[in-house]
Write the structure tokens for this entry.
Amino acid sequence: MPPVTELETPCILIDIPQMQANIARMQAHCDQHGLDCRPHVKTHKVPEIAQMQMEAGAVGIACQKLSEAQVFIDEGFGNIQIPYNVVGPSKTARLADMALYNRVTVSADHVSVIAGLSDAAAANEIVLRVMVELATELERTGAPVSEVLQLAQKIDADDHLHFAGLLVYPSNPIIRPALQEALDALHRAGIGVDIVSGGGMDAALRVHEMPELTELRVGTYIFNDYGSVRRGLAALDECAMTALATVVSRPTSDRAILDSGSKTLSAINDKGVYGFILDYPDAILYNLNEEHAFVDLSRCDEKPVIGERVRIVPVQAGVVSNLHNQLFGVVGEAVEAIWTVAARGMVW
Amino acid sequence: MPPVTELETPCILIDIPQMQANIARMQAHCDQHGLDCRPHVKTHKVPEIAQMQMEAGAVGIACQKLSEAQVFIDEGFGNIQIPYNVVGPSKTARLADMALYNRVTVSADHVSVIAGLSDAAAANEIVLRVMVELATELERTGAPVSEVLQLAQKIDADDHLHFAGLLVYPSNPIIRPALQEALDALHRAGIGVDIVSGGGMDAALRVHEMPELTELRVGTYIFNDYGSVRRGLAALDECAMTALATVVSRPTSDRAILDSGSKTLSAINDKGVYGFILDYPDAILYNLNEEHAFVDLSRCDEKPVIGERVRIVPVQAGVVSNLHNQLFGVVGEAVEAIWTVAARGMVW
């Protein structure tokens, strides 16, 4: 394989030793707290990388969409959680096909979602594993705690559904009283809870305050990103993903333009910063167009020249993987693996 | 082909009659002002769509990256402008290979960029067409007006380069004095200017104030987007691209969650708004996670139910195409074409 110096830019590099260290550390963290580790593969979308997470001790994987899950099922993955409301007859039929042999667990936050799952499971003559999602301070999906028991009972009473537990995102300690209330109600109703699945990067560091959890869904930890660094969740040298970019223009003494725009780094920013340039820590990546990155060099003593290559830690790793057809696994300046982002674009 | 009602969501619909009307209107606008129309294909990345633009009268196409251009060359496109500094020996060698038969014109804003182009052209024994990019108020790439003559002379004096004209982005009237100064200097030096290429959606509407232009590079006009609408450049019913999404959760009376997150719509927003929901004009799409769109329904009299499908006008069309493997060309509720986004992810 070509060395890093011969790769075309922009491209995405994954530091293999750092990624392996990140995998090992999160697995050890889960082991220490008696939690099953369930990596969310939406961060990388690469079956070979998910396999490394499984070999390190993960109990299974999480996928955010059916088409993403299908890619991993086709590669032989067997314990897949889809923490998402699967809605509509076409989607629930696909889910029921995937869920043969108990391979797939799904979540629901409403009776109408459960009814759709039941119909599809009945049509396929299977029993489908369904978790109930509890609403959190994120105010995204999830049922209020007052409805959790009713939803669980509906699943439990359905011949074609199995109540597989509770799901929370993020599982920050602020949600613990509601989680305890839901668990108490289920216990008093005589409904067993197999799994209490939490998730989120911040929440991962506070699982000791959430003893009700049995498993942790985490994605970004495998690469980390500048968003993690800015939130104090990772150090810069724990970031395994970088974008390799070339300086294509130096129009003024204080400005550089790189070939890594929003089609390379995504338009996600952290308070107006679109990534961190490792080679020029005082430079500020302050804007992106589709194929141009704008860099302010005014605080830099040394400044890059046209043609120079730099490495950028992206703000949000999971959307970056999804923009690229390949990720380049590197050890120092050697390319050791070229991974196809097999589940890229799998939003259906 | 399946009707729209049977497409899996999220997916991207292109209203074919509206797209054709947009193509015809921009071509007529260019014709009226005596300008060559050069569609920027980065907006759609689909050769079949570029072919429609050519058949409507376009002089050629613009591509933002080499790998994007290669896709269109492989499909037989022959007049391709790459308004970008192509930097580094590998990239310039690829460019020189593509530029056989005068198919490709490139731009440059610095002597070191020109030197690299010259070396590659000499190695391939071709003459490469090179434009000089003039800096604008955008403060992106481009040489200051004081350097344009020197750069043009360097190109003009090179046996393997041909000075192909000036390039400006955006070509708003504010840049006219600098453009006139550059043209005067070239004229006095006896250097002919084949092409003065402008670009930009706003600038397109003001070409009558920029009589120096000979051609217009425009991309977004083919679809329009909510960003165009917010800037007063297009009406909502002139937007040909919509994302078809499903309501997957209704956690509260005022909130809906759609299955179209930042991996479907991109994270680009216009002052905190991530798209416009045609079916619920009073709804506000106020946040995106990777696979979730957050909608505020508090101002809506009618509210969608779980499973309902809605159409969203994205904020920036060009980054949306790049996230998807297919675009669905529709006429009413019929799918008439499924276009592969052949140049998706082509950032090299």
